[in-house]
Amino acid sequence: MIVKIEEKGAVVFIEVKEERLDAHNSSELKAQMLNLFEEGKNNIVVDLHDVRFVDSSGLGALVSGFKNASARNGNLKLCGLQPQVKSMFELTRLHRVFEIFPGTDEALASF
Amino acid sequence: MEQIEVDIRVPNQTRYLGLIGKIGEDIARTLKRYKGDREELAYQINLVLTEAMTNAIRHANEDDPDKEVHITITIKNRNLSIKVYDEGQGFDISTFPGPDFKNLDDHGRGVYIIRTLMDHVSYSKQNGGHVLEMEKNLN
């Protein structure tokens, strides 16, 4: 999986550079997030603007990251969701769990 | 509406999820007289194919790379029928609990998604394996 990781102050941005976040690659995203938590970086924004398709495994990886961040008194937020991806969060009611922002600037300003 | 039948066999590996999902999407975009939101239907077909194949690969076929997943996608009489055949011992989807919306779990949303998006879902024994059958009315 191709991701771009960028730190902006105390917040780490993970930009997922894939068209699909699914059962084939979501465990790699999970592993990337665990690496960050182990380094003590607990405030994360996952930028999904290149992602056109998410399945339940992709959602599961994000939920896992959210729970890990919360347990460490941090937060995991999302930005850049395409409309179809956003409707996946609504279908599974996860839009009530995650803080979702239009772009990276809004997400950064929320911390 | 036209009649289409696509029959595909792929190795039991998640690397083929994207390929099969894309074929499902392209079928939705190609349908001649579908009046609903085509892009929404494309995403839904991609999604149920991905979820059903993942269940077959991971749970039924237990990630055995020597096994195979067989998929048929049929459009007939304004009805979409997707069948995903595995070679495993089976996983009874009727015993799957729905997702627990109160407690945040990493797993357990796949079957819920299939049941929500399709009109009829069944899972039964067939030829030494099992078949997950999903139908959706396209009117």
Could you describe the 3D structure shown?
The complex is a heterodimer of chains A (111) and B (139). Chain A is α/β, with parallel strands linked by helices and 111 residues long. Chain A has one domain: Transcription Regulator spoIIAA, CATH 3.30.750.24. In chain A, 40% of the residues lie in helices and 25% in strands. In chain A, the strands form two sheets. Chain A has a five-stranded mixed sheet. In chain A, helix 3 links the parallel strand 6 and strand 7. Chain A is globular. Classes of the chains: A alpha/beta (111), B alpha+beta (139).
Itemize the secondary structure elements and their pairings.
The complex is a heterodimer of chains A (111) and B (139).
Chain A: E1 3-8, E2 11-16, E3 20-21, H1 26-38, E4 43-47, E5 53-54, H2 56-71, E6 75-79, H3 83-91, E7 100-101, H4 104-109
Parallel strand pairs in A: 2-4, 3-5, 4-6, 6-7
Antiparallel strand pairs in A: 1-2
Helix pairs in contact in A: 1-2
Chain B: E1 4-11, H1 17-30, H2 38-60, E2 68-76, E3 79-86, H3 110-117, E4 120-126, E5 129-137
Antiparallel strand pairs in B: 1-2, 2-3, 3-5, 4-5
Helix pairs in contact in B: 1-2, 2-3
